[in-house]
């Protein structure tokens, strides 16, 4: 039997808290799960620094990747025998679902910003490079790795396949909303996925939703909205993210200044020089990063050391609402007061805006964006969701930006009361009223 | 106001998937949670290697410790105003609950066995040594750290206080059963904790259960039984545990043989020499251990390297039921066949028995064991649970041992078919029939 | 001890699937629950005819009334010791919560419409009349029954008390959304009530919500929206409701036409004549109504008999979207075609609009309506919810009416194919295309 | 297409709180659900009088019957293509599952005892008699009704089919445990049905369980045990049951004594005379019974009237543990004291033993009992469950009888204190100590 058609003797199941069981029957899927690059996802948290806000959010990307695979498996089970559905695409869809996040590194968001990396590019490299995953996919067919990469890259010719993995209501989002809600313990994130799966229909170039299922989709969109504001953009997690970014910045700066590290940052060298090989990338997971942070806590450089202690022991920055219309003058004053007080403002006075984050709870039809959700009306017409639903319309495409200013409250408080900067800093930060 | 009575301005809450919210009002508790030694528990998994079997089981001991605190908080809330309950003990109970697992290290079970450590001893050392936790406790009262240590150590004079933290139905067990069930996703582990809390009554020297709540307690005992066999003793997790132990053994052996590591095992040195300081102990968390395992995968020693690759990429040993009555002769033969085939049996042929593990789903009255569960009958008499409950009686004190033999199936399969040992090894392992 | 302060020896608990336990400690509450008029609520379904659509929705108003009581109990527990909260009002709030639905009759909505009754009036009559409930309340204080009635009637002087029982986010709504979701099994209806209870604050004349809880409130509003469209306005339940109303109409008409019933409709006489005494009202519960429907199925009058068979055996009317702009001409034609075909259009061609139903998922500030939701901002200002929340704004006050036309498809299909009316009826009803 | 193979155009789903959705594709099933005799099950509560203890337990046998059907549907879906499974039996299994409880009457247990009826006999009569259900089944095949009746009657030749519907681990039990737990809200009743369904295997003459699923089955058995003692045998529900039985007894006695009822008990006549026709039986549902009880509350006979008031308004009997070894003398004395005090002991002093109830949480191999559970061992051997499982063994076949004495505490308390019987009655009932 061809490798692509090989089935396990006995179906394997993974106990999954969200979908109850993840079922694997295909030999290819089983082999991919066992590949080193896929197992590596166990060492990368799904929600980055959110576990410092929601202590339950310690789950990994391995967890989520299995979930996305399982949802696609169920969708395709429902598609069997339907018009427009080409069952030859089944294995391709399953592989793309399983592997779509393969290129994520530790604390992806910060790493990508600081080191100018793109996890999607690394997903492609892992799939196409000299890896266990690639060898498995090649056994299916020489051209198969490229197909999988194309689906994940949204350049594959069959748009229906892409829309399963990447659209406004794809398996990725359906899994992470439910999973992140489950592990954080928040009451948002519930929607009737079973119903959504039942009303999904394959068309020529996309998956659509029977209009009778509109309310279930509204519920899903609302879940997303709530999860963004309640979980993903939580200011405490962002505070940890700010510190994390500043650690990476500082380490890079020190390296570029020829600072001598007591522990040579072997794993980071190519990140600092901007020349990261696939092998380097794969070696860096969150246990490695946390090891370095713990080592760097003992470095001579006071900034690097302080920031690492903060991250490791969760001594985070405090935050206040930041008025983006603050007079340039006042901002300059604050900045120089921090300098004078010995708190390098580059590292200790940080504005962070949530709109930098992937704010996409629903944006129909923007250039280059994920496919919008189309409803299939009883008369077989298609209508874009936000045209039919008041609720979705109300939150579509609105850019809600939230600016916060992060700083080390403990340092400010520790300034001697007779130091003239202290009072002024407190005034400018609006801390005086609070007392 | 005395530090011990200080309350936060506004109650703090942690969103908890198991108890919905963990509530903190006491300044002392809040400070303890923020202490570096407590935050360290975030980097130690509650269930050790179980995440390699149940992918959801990635939760930390931080998670669990908060949960135990919350349960004790609720119990004490119910105790308020009851006879026998001395509210002066409240803060002591809460601190002991929060800190009872503070001394756990990475993958505790294996580390304790290989390096002959005792996590309870380290809990004491952290509480009594020069640590953030100790300083906070001292602020309550000079003698307070010792009291907390005594409660955890079960030597405190007030046995009622001890029984909240450590008995057959303490807050520790009630939290971990529910929490481990939640994160693994298994359907066991549910019992009506709210009812149990309602029927708990303080007596002079122990917490007892009103007899009307017996069935809820039976359910709890059954949960425990099922969790042991379905989760805690799962043979796949034990396979990972076997490999982990063998890595530690090998590293120690190499060190003692003056092997030159390419990466000097700084963090491990005092573990190898058996002279672990508190500081050394606290520095070793699971991210550090995983860092070393990844480094050691590149070591020249083939055994250390192989075992580390196995652990990191989850290439585990397979297992078969091991017949402990196997003829010594056959066992010797198997052992020497492994040697001949180049698989050092010391590392590649391992018998593991579940009875080595803390098998205690219910043992009333054994020497030195946790207090049994007493029911408070309507006539105010006390009866030990297993005398009243058929079900509990049926599983009490039975030692059910399960022996398994672990070995690298991939190595056996990779032996050349014409190698004479292969067939015989397969016969002795009972693999031939399976083909 | 005064009756109003009497406590039960031991707290009583009711196992409740939604709130886990309902706790009763006050003697007055216990006595009220045992009163005949309260027990009668067991024989009246919470969701009227919805059980014919959602088979799980068989729960009674007894169920819900206990739930509302429990929520208010928990709110007041949180209010203890807060400014603005007068604990003297506690028992009044609990009684009003428990009794707020006491005047509901069987299938209230239809009965009220057909017989021009008002359940709120009967709630007052039961509380103030010669009933067990009244006698219990009188024991608290002669004027107490009137106070309870005033709170339910929203005329009580203390507006804070009223807002607990009756506002846009009162205990009534919070219970029914969760309860109806639980029993129907739909995935809507979940919101974080525990959080909402935590952020409720008593002010002088209303309960407000701390602004940090806005998202939890949004979730609650969305639940309500979804429950209305998915459950409460479900067209199949409305079909049953249409038939029910028509049965009552028919029986009343027959009575007025001096028709001789084989079973004298003793229980209904005063309803037919519009002179319903409190005693008559209390005697009519859903088992009585179902008894009559079953008896009337054997009546000589074909319409009454047919409708009763339909209701009893769930042979409901089918429905189509009704275009309210249908040409009067066409409507007249359809009407007379039904007449010709022997299907009295008065009973067999029914337009039903959901806007007739209590459509109130959020209407701030309308005359005579429930109090809107106010957020308490950090600066202590109050802001009306829909001014702060895009989502709530998007669905506020919109009147979304949904018109459906109900008719007996089986009768239409049973018309002989050569009957000229048949084809034309099918065309006008838009049935022909469907074939 | 043959009627038996007809499929609905679009699958119909029922929203079900326990199984999420009940799926119907077969025309035959759809028609059976719509049959009057099946709809009648909506008017019969699944748990009889338990709703007077657990207010959530208001669900009907309609509810449960759909659930059993759904479970069998899922089992057969898993069986597809397996050896031993004859797919020709599929429709038969589904029909038998759906209809297995069709003959239940109102408050079956009491009715059966008082009037010496057997609901299983009526199930057969409905299936084989002149009913809508029978006509539907006949359309499948003339002999089909008999086959369905045989399966339910356990006389069908294919024992595998029977074991799906009726064994120690059949779809009936799996549904009611979960459903009754859901509606009462108790925390028992959970087990991993999905896993059990996955390990069920068809053999020649029974369904067996792969031994790897033993723990899931243990959990199911334990659920059953807990549900019996916590829910099904709850003494308060039994108190209501006692009153119900006594009402029926009294009405029958009065009828036999030629008492003149103000409301002629038309529906009951044939029950009194012991000659119940199928038509009579089908007309009697719980709304009819409750109607009579409400009417009889106004009857002249003080006993009938009192008991009916008690049942309607939930003024139940109190209970004490009854010592079955009570000296005959004392019992005679109590009996005659009740008589003297004007409380007819026939109706007001009732011993009820739980062992009268269907106590079967696990009895392997008893004559005429349901099939025991067999485990399929890896070597293909079969082993009876209680031989493999300590827990199951511990509760198997044990007859645990619980005797209670029910009486009207309010009457006893209302006896004048100077009446000499009072003190003695209180002593004999053990009430004096309690004061």
Structure explained in plain terms:
Four copies of one chain form a homotetramer. With 435 residues, chain A is α+β, with helices and mostly antiparallel strands. The first copy, chain A, has a domain of 218 residues: Hypothetical protein af1432 (Orthogonal Bundle). Helix content of chain A is 51%, strand content 10%. The first copy, chain A, contains 23 helices and nine strands. In chain A, the strands form three sheets. Chain A has a four-stranded mixed β-sheet with strand order 3-4-7-8. In chain A, strands 5-9-6 form a three-stranded antiparallel β-sheet. In chain A, strands 1-2 form a two-stranded antiparallel sheet. In chain A, β3 and β4 form a beta hairpin. In chain A, α1 runs parallel beside α4, α4 crosses α8 and α4 runs parallel beside α9. Chain A is globular, with a radius of gyration of 24 Å. The mean pLDDT of chain A is 91.
In short:
With 435 residues, the first copy, chain A, is of the alpha+beta class.
Question: Descriptors for this entry?
Answer:
23 helices, HD domain-containing protein (chains A, B, C, D), four-stranded mixed beta sheet, homotetramer, alpha+beta, three-stranded antiparallel beta sheet, 10% strand, 9 strands, Hypothetical protein af1432, 435 residues, dGTPase-like (chains A, B, C, D)
């Amino acid at each position: 039997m061809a490798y692509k058609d090989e089935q396990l003797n006995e179906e394997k199941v993974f106990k999954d808290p969200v979908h109850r069981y993840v079922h694997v029957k295909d030999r290819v899927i089983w082999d991919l799960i066992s590949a080193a690059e896929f197992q590596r996802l166990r060492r990368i948290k799904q929600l980055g620094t959110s576990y410092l806000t929601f202590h339950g959010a310690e789950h990994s990307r391995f967890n989520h990747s299995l979930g996305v695979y399982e949802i696609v498996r169920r969708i395709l089970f429902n598609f069997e025998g339907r018009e427009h559905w080409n069952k030859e695409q089944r294995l391709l869809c399953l592989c793309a679902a399983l592997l779509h996040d393969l290129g994520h590194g530790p604390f992806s968001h910060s790493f990508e910003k600081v080191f100018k990396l793109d996890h999607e590019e690394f997903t492609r490299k892992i799939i196409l490079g000299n890896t266990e995953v690639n060898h498995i996919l090649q056994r299916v067919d020489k051209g198969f790795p490229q197909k999988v990469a194309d689906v994940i890259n949204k350049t594959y010719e069959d748009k229906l396949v892409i829309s399963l993995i990447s659209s406004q209501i794809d398996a990725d989002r359906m899994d992470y909303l439910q999973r992140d809600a489950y592990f954080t313990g928040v009451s948002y994130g519930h929607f009737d996925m079973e119903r959504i799966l039942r009303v999904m229909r394959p068309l020529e170039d996309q998956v659509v939703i029977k209009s009778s299922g509109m309310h279930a989709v509204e519920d899903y969109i609302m879940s997303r909205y709530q999860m963004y504001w309640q979980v993903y953009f939580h200011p405490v997690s962002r505070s940890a993210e700010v510190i994390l970014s500043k650690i990476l910045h500082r380490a890079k700066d020190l390296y570029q200044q020829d600072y001598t590290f007591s522990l040579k940052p072997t794993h980071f060298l190519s990140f600092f020089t901007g020349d990261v090989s696939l092998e380097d990338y794969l070696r860096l997971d969150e246990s490695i990063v946390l090891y370095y942070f713990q080592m760097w806590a003992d470095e001579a450089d006071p900034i690097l050391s302080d920031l690492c202690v903060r991250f490791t022991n969760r001594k985070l920055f405090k935050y206040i609402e930041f008025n983006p219309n603050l007079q340039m003058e006042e901002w300059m004053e604050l900045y120089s007061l921090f300098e004078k007080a010995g708190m390098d403002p580059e590292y200790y006075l940080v504005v962070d805006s949530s709109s930098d984050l992937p704010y996409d709870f629903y944006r129909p039809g923007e250039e280059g964006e994920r496919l919008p959700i189309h409803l299939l009306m009883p008369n077989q017409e298609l209508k874009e969701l936000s045209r039919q639903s008041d609720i979705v319309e109300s939150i579509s495409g609105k850019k809600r930006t939230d600016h916060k200013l992060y700083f080390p409250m403990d340092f400010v408080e520790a300034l001697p009361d007779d130091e003239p900067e202290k009072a002024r800093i407190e005034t400018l930060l609006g801390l005086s009223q609070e007392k």
